[in-house]
Design brief:
DNA Polymerase III, Chain A, domain 2; 6 helices; 26 strands; nine-stranded antiparallel β-sheet; alpha+beta; 369 residues; 3 domains; 13-stranded antiparallel β-sheet
Chain lengths: 369, 369
């Protein structure tokens, strides 16, 4: 193999696939990046078996061929290259790949290309496209709410539910649930999938949502892939019966709070200084006609209190939440005012953007004395 | 105690003393910050026994008094305050200090002020002043060369040697030595001290070197203190016989290299990508009439090579160094061109700024096959 390409494109491509390089791989080959030179392009692929990412850049191929090299060092070397153009060549005998740019030359021991595990594309049953801007918004509003622990794998992913031209994405760790609705122009039929949050995160990081860009999605019963720009991402689907999320949305409220989103976020961040050091991350809301009184207490440190103005309707109430669950939701609220509806001190709270119902965040309170 | 002051000044003062707050203290009181309100000022002091720092800000005292509170939380709370003015008050009965600014109120459990260990000022034997700009430059050019391990405590500090109007500072970890000479207007007599590098680092961080600012220095046989602007720093002196550093400066060179400082630094950074992953951090220089050929090798990764242009006088030579020792020295070289003098492949190299002899860096090569 022997090619030349631009240093910038090589670095971008290596960064694109980097999150699919295994960090502590069961087999050394999974820590590699696969490069394939053919015609006027260089294909670059990483696959840690959970997620596979592939991309392509333009290149001048002198000798076609494929190699696998350490993903970590390829990325670090690509960052350090000094010139605009880089040549990549492979010495078959020494099993060494060489990157050369201006006066710097890196040589890397190559891994055995025969061992490379190519991304296995799904046997397509369904295929559809979503506008990139819609898909990225669905992800941004919900993916942070997923569980991190693997004890119930289903909750480490988001539910994508399609019903005609209505698209809903849902993330939950069972203590809170984030629901986002979007509509698209086309009728896409009916389907639902649970997609690992890591793959969604990569999609949100890599997809360009300017203009009319689309993400093409293909699914089998087990796998899903996403194609956009020059990037291909494939991941497994998660299996399980996602809880009926519509049922957890409270029907009625006894207290409704309308408050400036940024003011509330800033106050929670300040008062939360104390909460964050405690086991339960508890922040208390005392709500009365005068406004919202936030407080948190730690027996070892002290306490913090702050009152902020809010428009309150309904009964006075005392209620407590996990401070991080509030901050994460408020960070994705895009309206100046947010609305918090409470149905009781031990009943789930409902947080939405003012005068909009496409984003719904339900959070279970913490029981306090 | 009850005072008001500006939030900005409080935060600056807390940041100033913060490095003297003990992180894992043998006694809890050492993790505190001492505040003393009196007249129109608030004194702020931290003392981890290795280093003590004190500063003062203007304040409106309603009730004079002293308290000790957690340094960590005072700093975090001061950062979070929302208004321009903060009031600090102490509730004697509850033993709680309160910070209030606009609508936010923090309460902190206070530590026992009776247990506070005040900074013990040295019994002054000698006192003199140095321009802040001179002192900071002496520190910048040498302090990174000190040892970090405490096995020979003397080398965790820099030697400050005063001979009339000549000031010399020296830092070494025995594998390399950085020497910086400055001259001052006054004849200061003859003396020498070994000052812990942590205190010098704080001095360099905090002293304002604009204009004609001076640092006043007072010493006993055991302790030294520094006063500048509103800041007071005190530390122990290190004892020991510093090696005669003038003797390690090579007398003659067989090869002299004149090279662009930034080009060399960038090339070493690139080639060093490989060295940094190896045990000895070895970078090789092959020097011949054509220039400087840098290389490094790791049996697990591969190798890197780069050639840069340089003006060479004398014999061809192969020599190897610790890559970090070169990078640290080149980073403090202020001239476009630097000069490297070599006396043999196993003899110390001498690195200086072109056409200047105030900074001298001597580094021992690594023996290679």
């Amino acid at each position: 193999m022997k090619i030349t390409c631009t240093t910038r494109e090589l670095l971008e491509a290596v960064n694109t696939v980097s999150k699919a390089v295994a960090v502590k791989p069961p087999a050394p080959i999974l820590s590699g990046i696969f490069l394939k030179a053919e015609g006027s392009s260089l294909e670059i692929e990483a696959n840690n078996l959970d997620i596979g990412i592939r991309t392509k850049i333009s290149a001048n191929t002198e000798v076609p061929g494929s190699i696998v090299v350490s993903g970590k060092y390829l990325q670090e070397m690509a960052r350090k290259l000094s010139g605009d153009i880089v040549s990549i060549s492979y010495d078959d005998e020494a099993k060494v790949a060489r990157l050369q740019s201006e006066s710097i030359s890196f040589k890397m021991l190559a891994l055995n290309v025969e061992e490379w595990v190519h991304i296995k594309e799904p046997e397509v049953e369904v295929s559809f496209a979503l506008p990139a801007v819609t898909f990225k918004n669905l992800i941004r509003k919900t993916v942070y709410a997923c569980a991190h622990d693997e004890s119930r794998p289903m909750f480490t992913g988001c539910l994508l539910q399609i019903d005609g031209n209505k698209i809903t994405m849902v993330g939950t760790n069972t203590h809170r649930i984030a629901i986002m609705h979007e509509t698209v122009a086309d009728n896409l039929g009916e389907m639902s999938y649970i997609i690992p949050s890591k793959a969604l995160g990569e999609l949100a990081r890599l997809a360009d949502d300017s203009g009319d860009n689309n993400v093409t999605i293909r699914c089998s019963s087990k796998d899903i892939d996403f194609t956009f720009d020059n990037v291909y991402i494939k991941t497994r689907l998660l299996s399980g019966d996602f809880p009926p999320f519509e049922k957890v949305i409270p029907k009625e409220a006894i207290t409704t709070v309308r408050v400036d989103t940024m003011d509330l976020l800033a106050a929670i961040d300040r008062v939360g200084l104390i909460s964050r050091e405690t086991d339960y991350k508890t922040i208390r809301f005392a709500i009365d006609k005068e406004g919202l009184h936030l407080s948190s207490t730690s027996p070892d440190i002290g306490n913090a209190e702050e009152s902020i103005m809010a428009a309150i309707e309904g009964e006075d109430i005392d209620i407590a939440f996990n401070v991080n669950y509030l901050i994460e939701a408020l960070k994705v609220i895009d309206t100046k005012i947010c609305v918090i509806k409470l149905s009781g001190r031990l009943k789930p709270a409902d947080i939405r953007e003012a005068d909009r119902d496409d984003f719904i965040y339900i959070v279970t309170p913490i029981r306090t004395n």
